[in-house]
Design brief:
The protein is α/β, with parallel strands linked by helices. The chain has two domains: 112 residues, Urease, subunit C, domain 1, CATH 2.30.40.10; 298 residues, Metal-dependent hydrolases (TIM Barrel). Helices cover 37% and strands 22% of the residues. The protein contains 14 helices and 17 strands. Strands 1, 2, 3, 4, 5, 14, 15, 16 and 17 form a nine-stranded mixed β-sheet that branches. An eight-stranded parallel β-sheet has the order 6-7-8-9-10-11-12-13. The longest helix is centred in the last third of the chain and has 19 residues. It is globular. The N and C termini lie far apart (53 Å). The protein binds zinc ion. The site of zinc ion has 7 residues, from loops.
């Protein structure tokens, strides 16, 4: 693979120290080979040069939790709380086809790339047929994004249609089939219970931990998203919190990521920290569904690793992590009535290395360091809303927009250059998504809720 040299950049490496500097980055065979402070004029043969004047060069953003097919369901069910909203989301399984998953996922991936995302964790929870997962993975692979695919399982629950419920052994066979097809092609897999306890039985939780360990898979789960989920665990299992409930099945752990974790107690934050469990904070989705405010400051202070996620477009309306970063910052400030309670640098760490750690890819990406894979973005800071430049971290979090992302590089491959996608055919993806959307809406109109 030919090399890349990115010169004249304002480099924001997102390593432990809060720093930025003018410099250059050299990429060789998909790896960051050198990071230079100041000028670098030595050009190697076969090297593509990108002049990044006016741009911040930073690690690509990591979306630690989303549901890509939901891009077809943007703004369909509005103004609903979690449970009635979930009833509709799960009900979709009765009409969703593999073609919907493929078209929606590709549209979501295109949006992610245009928003400066380089790694996506797809928490996949609707499996009316094996092909739904296969087609989602196929779309992710085609996009060139670094892909983490969490193929989760539901086996119970009043609001889950029968076609989306699986017996553990049947689900595990299908996951093994996915691993056989894709594991050696650069995609990282996880499994997990979808939303315990409302759609997973204690037996399934026990089996899932065993299965995950046997295949060295991480676990992804929706945890304590709303008060109603905590009430269900109190009523049906006599436990005071979801994390506490999950602990008896050893679901918390170093390779586990708990999406949301809005309603967790101080003791449960202690369990998350002690077990090395990561959290994906999804503030826009939490606000949209009226879930509440996750104790992010308390989790960070307590030593919990936190990444950021958009969640699906049915409860966020976008795959935009710039929006999510700003929401994460402002929500904690207003919640604590303390303007200094969370720093932009901490928010940016969550969106980069925090997410990478949560997904077990921090040895590959999440910071700009020699030896890491080249997952990089260039953000144009020259637009009126970004000028003049004072505090780079604050301005990336509070001023910059997804549309300021100029160039996106994953594994050394340029996926977007000067706002033009290089691998994906954007017009075709939009046209195909519109066809899939019309078909899905027609099928949904026949369903009663
Ligand atoms: Zn979710």
């Amino acid at each position: 693979m030919a090399g890349l040299l990115i010169i004249n950049a304002l480099i924001v490496p997102m390593s432990e120290t809060r720093q930025w500097f003018e410099g250059a980055v050299r990429v060789r065979d998909a790896v960051i080979s050198e990071v230079y402070e100041g000028r670098c004029d030595e050009l190697a043969p076969d090297e593509t040069v990108i002049d990044a004047r006016g741009c911040v060069l930073m690690p690509g953003l990591i979306n630690a939790h989303t549901h890509l097919y939901q891009t077809l369901l943007r703004a369909v069910w509005e103004d609903l709380e979690l449970m009635p909203w979930l009833k509709r989301i799960y009900g979709c399984a009765r009409v969703l086809t593999p073609e919907h998953f493929y078209a929606g996922s590709l549209l979501g991936c295109a949006e992610a790339i245009r928003s400066g995302v380089t790694t996506v964790c797809e928490h996949h929870f609707l499996n009316p047929s094996a092909e739904c997962a296969i087609e989602t993975v196929r779309a992710m692979e085609q996009s060139g994004l670094r892909a983490v695919f969490a193929r989760t399982v539901m086996d119970t629950g009043e609001i889950v249609p029968d076609c989306a419920k699986e017996k553990p052994e049947q689900a595990f066979r299908l996951i093994e089939d996915l691993l056989g097809r894709y594991r050696n092609r650069g995609i990282r897999f996880m499994t997990g219970p979808n939303t315990p306890p409302i759609n997973t039985s204690p037996d399934l939780l026990r089996e899932l931990r065993r299965f995950a360990d046997a295949h060295s898979l991480g676990i992804s789960a929706h945890v304590a998203e709303s008060r109603s989920v905590v009430e269900a665990v109190e009523r049906d299992h006599g436990q005071s919190g979801v994390v506490q409930f999950l602990q008896q099945f050893a679901i918390p752990g170093k390779n586990s990521i708990f999406a949301h974790s809005v309603h967790v107690s101080k003791d449960e934050i202690g369990i998350l920290a002690a077990t090395g469990t990561s959290v994906s904070h999804n503030p826009v989705s939490n606000m949209m569904l009226g879930d509440g405010v996750a104790p992010v400051v308390e989790m960070l202070r307590g030593g919990v690793n936190v990444g950021l996620g958009t969640d699906g477009a049915a409860s966020n309306h976008s795959q935009d992590l710039f929006d999510t970063m700003k929401a994460a910052s402002l929500l904690q400030k207003v919640h604590h009535r303390d303007a200094g309670v969370i720093k932009p640098f901490d928010v940016l760490r969550m969106a980069t290395i925090g997410g990478a750690r949560a997904l077990g890819v921090d040895s590959l990406c999440g910071t700009i360091e020699a030896g890491k894979r080249a997952d990089l973005i260039l953000v144009n800071m020259g637009a009126v809303h970004n000028q003049p430049l004072n505090d780079v971290f604050s301005q990336i979090v509070h001023c910059a927009k997804a549309s300021d992302v100029q160039t996106v590089i994953v594994e050394g491959e340029i996926l977007m250059r000067d706002r033009r996608l290089t691998r994906l055919d954007e017009k075709r993806i939009i046209a195909d998504a519109q066809v899939a959307h019309r078909d899905l809406m027609h099928r949904l109109s026949a369903l009663a809720y």
